[in-house]
Amino acid sequence: MPKKRSGGGLSPTQQAAKFLGVSVLAGAVMAGIALPAFGALGLAAKGSVESFDELPANLKTPPLSQRTTILDADGGQIATVYSRDRTVVPLKDISPYMQKAIVAIEDSRFYQHGAIDLKGVLRALNKNAQSGGVAQGASTLTQQLVKNVAIEEAGDDPTKVAQATQQTIGRKIKELKYAIQLEEELGKKKILENYLNITFFGEQAYGVEAAAQRYFSKHAKDLNVQQAALLAGIVQSPTRYDPVNDATEATKRRNVVLQRMADMGDISQAEANKAKKTPLGLDPSQPKNGCITAVKGAGFFCDYVREVFLTDPIFGKTREARAKIWNQGGLTIRTTLDPQAQESVQTSIKEHVYKSDPVATAATIVEPGTGKILAMGQSRPYGFGKHETQINLSVNAAMGGGAGYQPGSTFKPIVAAAAIEGGTPATQTYSSPYEMDYPAPVSACDGRTWDEKGVKLTNESESEHGPYSMKEATAKSVNTYYVQLISDIGICPVTTMAQKMGVERADGKKLQQAPSIALGTQEMSPLTMANAYATFASRGMYCTPIAIESITQTVGTQKKSFEVPKSTCSRAMSEKTADTVTTLLKGVVEDGTGTQAGLSDRPSAGKTGTTDNRYAAWFVGFTPNMAGAVWVGDPAHERQMKNITIGGVWNEKVYGGQVPGPIWRDMMTGALDGKPVESFNLVNIPDANKGKGNGNDDGNNGDNGGTTDQGQTDGGTDTGGTDGGTIPTPTFSIPENLFQGNSNGNGNSGGRG
User: By the 8 A CB rule, do 375 and 344 touch?
Assistant: First the structure.
C-alpha cells in the first residue's frame, strides 16, 4: 500500500511523482515528443502544461571551460591553467566504444526516444512510488546535458550550483523544456558529443578527452572497450567509482557496463567476458593545473600574466567580466618570456642562494625600448610547502607581490638624472663630509618644505669625505654628496623624474616628498627598478612593462584574437642626460662598488644598494639590450644579513656588490650569450682633481639607503639605509661602529655601497 502522511494524503514524494507524471502524460505525449520523428513539433499542444509557457524560449549554452596554455616568446609551453581541466573534441575523435558505453549505461534507448523517455519515466515513477522515495531516475542523456550546462554556467558559485542541481518540480520542468529544444536544434550525434565533452569523470577531469588523459594517458579516440566501459561507469558517481582510489568498486562498475554493452548488442558476450577479466590497466597522469606546473621556475611570471589579464580593462570592463573569460579558458597566451634569459636567471639564483637560506632573492630582466619582461625568478619556489611561497617577490603588491623593499643607493642614479636634466653639471662638486645634518629646509613639490633639523647622516667610513664630484661620489656611493645634491635641486624634480621612469612604491602609495628619498628609503619591487634602469639603457625612453604578446581563444570550432596591452613609451629625459648617467654607472662596475657585477665580454653599467641593518641588498644594472635587477633579503624584514650563510657562503656583512652583484653578473652573462655586443653612447666627464686619497681602498665603498620617512614641515626622523659594495680589504683596523650605520645615536644611519 502507498504510504500516507499522518492526517491523510499523499507523501511529498508521491505528490511530486503524481505531478510529474501528469505533466508528462498530459503535456509531453500530447506534444508528440515521445518519439524522435515528432520531436521537432515542439509543444504544439503545450497549453495543458501552462508552466512551459512561462519559461525562456532558448537555452543559454555557455562555451565549455577549457584549459589555457601559456607560452614563452619562442612558443614553448610554460604552463597550463584551467578552471576545469577540459579539452573539447569532436565526436569523430572519441572512440566508438566510448560512445556506445555511455549510451548503454546511461540511456540505452537514447536513439529511440525524444527529449524524454516515456517508458523510463513510467518505470521510474512506479519504482519510486513502491519505495516511497527516489529509488530510480529517468533522465535521458539530453536532460543530463541540460543539467550539466546549468552547472557549468554556475561556475564556482555554490549558490548557483545548488540551484542548478536542486530536486524540485520547477527545475525538472525547465530541464524538460530545454531538453526538447536541444533535441530539435542539435540532433542525437551533437547531443552525445556535447554530453561527452561536458560531463565530469572525477579526478579533476571534465570531458572524455581529459578523462582519457587522466586515467590512461591517451587520447579519447584511442580508448579500447574496457577503458571506455570504465570511464562510462564513473559518471554515475565519480567518487564511489574512482579507479585511482577504489579499484575494486571501479572494476565492478566497469563490468556492469561491459555486460550492458553486450546486452545491447554493442559487443559480443565473448568480448564482454574477455574484457571483464582484464585488469584496469591504469596509466594515470597527474593533473597539471596552474602556475605551480610552470617550467624553468616561471611560476611567478605565469602568475603575473594571470594578474595582468584580471586587472587590465582591455580584457573586460569589470574584474568579474575578465575573470569569467579567464575561467572559461581555451586561451593560448604567448608571452614575452625569453626562455634563455629565464633559464639563466634560475641557474644563477640556484647557484648563489638556496631556497632553504634564511633570506631570499628575486630577479627580473626587461628589454630596454620595448618594456618586454624577459625573465622573472626567485629562490623560493612557487608552491605551498616549506621554503616555498606564492608571493611574487619581483612585483608590486597589486600584482601578487609583497610590500616591496627599500632599494638603498640604487635610487641615487634617479637623483643624478633629475639634477643633470635640470642643468646641474656632472662635474658638480660638494664638500661631502663624513657626517652632517640633513640640510633644512628642502623644497618639495607642493610648495611645502621638509625640515630635518638635527637629524644626522654619515658615510660608510670616516675616510669617506669630500670634496667629491658626481662621478666619484656615484662610484663610491657617497651619502652626503647625494643629500647635498637633492637639497640643492629640491625633492620635486627627483619625484617627478622617478614618475617619468615608472618608479613607484610597491604598496601603491604615493612617493613621499622627503630628502631621504635620495638614499632609497621607500619600498620598491625588482621589476620597477629593472624597468627604470632600462630607461637609461634606451637613452632616456621609458616604456611600460608588458608580459603578453598575443592571446587567442578557441570556443568550439571558432577562434578569436584578443587585443592585448601594448607598451607605451615616452621620453623621461634627454639622450644626453641618459648617456651621462650611463657613463656614471659604468664607472661603478669598473672601479666602484659594483666591480663584482661587471661583465667581461660586453659593456655594462649599474648600481649597488644595501639598506640599513642589511635587511636588503641590491644590484640593478644594464647593457644596451637588457636591464636587470637583483634583490636579496628577508621578505619579512626581520633577518639582518650579518654573520649569515647564503648559498653555502658565510658573510660577515652582506653588501650590494657582494651577493646581488655576482647573481646579476651570471644571470646577465647567460641571458646575453649569443646576443650582439652593443656599445653605450658615453660622454666625457672630467675627473675632479682632489689631490688626495679616498676611502675606497680601506673602507667598505660606502653607499647609503634608508628605511623610514616621517614628518613634513614639522620635522621628523629618518633612518638611513645602507648599500653594500665590494668586500673590504682594509689596511688597518676599522672600528665596528663605523659599519652599523647608527653610530651617531640618532636613529639615522649611513649607507653602504
Answer: yes
